[in-house]
Amino acid sequence: MTTIITVEGMTCGHCEQTVEEALQGVSGVTDATVDRENEQASVDGDADATALVEAIEDAGYTAHA
Question: What domains sit in the chain, N to C, each tagged with a CATH number?
Fold first, then answer.
């Protein structure tokens, strides 16, 4: 299953990497790709959307599913 999360506040490639790493640390995530230009994260796996949003917010960004 693929979940799309809107991520606000990313300004550079390092931001994308930080969000990707945060998402990959969530149980159930098999892959995560972040695109700062479109303000989206595409997450594959069976992780709960709430857990994904929390991981992004814990990394310092605003997110919503």
Answer: 8-64 (3.30.70.100)
Q: Token digits for 6?
A: 């809107």
- Token couple for 20: 């990707």
Phi-psi region of 52 (alpha: psi -120 to 50; beta: other; left: phi over 0): alpha
Report pLDDT digits (tens) over 3-47: 999 999 999 999 999 999 999 999 999 999 999 999 999 999 999
Q: What is the pLDDT of residues 33-45, one digit of tens each?
A: 999 999 999 999 9
Helix, strand, coil fractions of the chain, as percent rounded to 5: 35, 35, 30
Q: Which residue has the tokens 């917010």?
A: 57
Provide φ and ψ at 9, rounded to 5°: 105, 0
Max CA pair span of the chain: 28
